[in-house]
Amino acid sequence: MLQRAVRFSLADLVTSGAAGLLLVAGVASGVPEAAPGPFARVAVAFVLPFALAAVRGRRPLPGSPLAAVAEFGPIFPLLLVFDNLGPFILATTAVDRDPLLVAADRLLFLGSDPTRLLEPFARPLLLDVLTVCYALYYFHPVVLGALLWRDDLRERTPGARFPAFAFAMLLTFYVSYAGYFLVPAIGPRFTVGHAGPLPRATVARLIDGTLDRLETNRRNCFPSGHTMVTVAVLVEAARRSRKTFLAFLPFAAGLLAATVVGRYHYVVDVLAGLVLTFVVLGAARALARKVPQDPDGTVLATTR
Question: d(Cα 247, Cα 30) in Å, to the nearest integer?
Fold first, then answer.
């Protein structure tokens, strides 16, 4: 009897799809010659979901280490894609759009730059707290995902919550990345004339320095991916329980404040992120409901 050998979830498909589109854009714009290393790493991100689908094809027991690898594995290609976006954006876009975003912010704030208006409130302790919140960005979906995965196991309903959540989060990330190509921008830290540098204390300086070293792509402002992912987590946390929502809320509020107070984003980045979040979540839910899924989240399978 034939057995299913490769079992793809929506998370696997959206990950390979996003990486595949990036590779096509890269080939068309000469990235393999200009930046072979980043191109190769994105190619790895394209292939990894096939390996995860093969792991799922072994039908691991729910809650087993192999099952955890299959479910949480898309995190790794996501990180690979994000860390190597820079050369692709530079190769496919010619002009930074910061002047348009600065003008949009000034239109909203009657001719003023919001990051300059906030300068009197930027104190070292506040910046330390907000920068810590900002740095917790990637942990929000991982923590909530772990809670939902555990819920599925405890209630003996594998795939009831986690697969749809993972797909929605990954789609949110990848839509934000698409925005970086459409509206490349480096942010108000580099484009707005401020009275001086922010009075960051030791913690904020350490985190900022680490983020600057880790993030090789500087054109990642519009839309605010931090806003999109954080608001998406809040929405999904509220669906789980009021207690979960309230547990995430302070960290999310600090992160959203940090986007502008810390001069990482323009206000229009944040507003665009808010709108896009609800569009993406709605689309993700509709697709997850429409596509038939097995209990382990499989939507496409091959046989030996």
Answer: 46
Query: Contact at 8 Å (CB) between 123 and 256?
Result: no
Q: How far apart are CA 82 and CA 184, in angstroms?
A: 14
Nearest to residue 221, comparing CAs of 191, 258, 257, 183?
183
Q: What is the pLDDT of residue 4?
A: 54
The residue among 240, 223, 241 whose CA lies nearest residue 278 is 223
Nearest residue to 285 (alpha-carbon basis) of 168, 153, 123: 168
pLDDT, averaged across the chain = 93
Classify each residue of 138-149 as buried b or exposed e, where b means 16 or more C-beta atoms within 10 Å of its C-beta.
eebbebbbebbb
Rounded Cα distance, 183 and 124, in Å? 32
Which residue from 169, 158, 191, 187 is spatially nearest to 258, judged by alpha carbons?
A: 187
Closest CA to 169 of 219, 117, 106, 233: 233
pLDDT in tens, 91-139: 988 789 999 999 999 999 999 999 999 999 999 999 999 999 999 988 9
Which pTM does this prediction carry?
0.93
The set of residues, in sequence order, having a beta carbon less than 8 Å from that of 148 and lying 6+ positions away, is 161, 162, 165, 236, 240
The number of C-alpha atoms within 13 Å of 286 and in the hemisphere containing its C-beta is 6
